[in-house]
Structure prediction request, 250 residues.
Amino acid sequence: MTLEVEGLRKSFGGVQAVKGVSLRVAAGELLALIGPNGAGKSTCFNMLNGQIRPDGGTVRLNGQDITGLPPRRIWRLGVGRTFQITATFGSMSVLENVQMALLSHRRRLLDLWRPVSREDPAEALALLERVGMAGQAARPCGVLAYGDLKRVELAIALANAPSLLLMDEPTAGMAPAERVALMELTAGIARAGGIAVLFTEHDMDVVFRHADRILVLDRGTPIAEGAPAAVRADPRVREVYLGTGATHDH
Ligand code: ADP
Ligand code: MG
Prediction:
């Protein structure tokens, strides 16, 4: 099992943001974490990626306990993430951004240093090919359309050869058609490469089309888990969403 989470908990002052979340994601599987605004989704992500230390519970990656490790150690162990606010260097080209990512991945493995300009671009180009961005390799990231930047971000995450990708609202700010395309791309890459994906998403269309399983959180507590059709039909899930009058959050 790529990711195994048991009884994860976190409070902020008097607010119990996450009250005992357990989940598993297998290689090549996409698990969507959904729930109304304030349900605790981002807090869960931040405990998994090391930004926030859990109050309780355990996180295992490929059998190894990574609970409470700092973000950099978790990244080194092969946990990739994409950011809501895209983290690329705007003045550098698309290719250079991916080469940088490959370099830091190799440095993690071999502890050597070489300037980006001396890197063979073949590997970076191959990654850009996978996300459909090879044709724009020479352009500065700063001039790309938002949806294209998200693809570069995915290539950067893949440069780390992750076994797990954490994506907190990866399609935020994108047009509906772009969202579906980005998740379709991500799902194809994850399934072909055996990468486990945990993602949040407020577009239910995207969730129901691309998730293998869905875990629904409400006020820090899991209330339903299962295949998309079963979750969609679950009375408690309907109640949570109807109760708030919304199927999305920001
Ligand atoms: P979601 O991502 O599902 O919208 P969050 O995990 O961001 O939910 O938030 C869950 C709850 O925890 C909310 O009540 C939120 O106000 C609270 N919370 C999140 N982060 C912090 C923080 N750093 N300090 C205090 N409260 C927080
Ligand atoms: Mg959130």
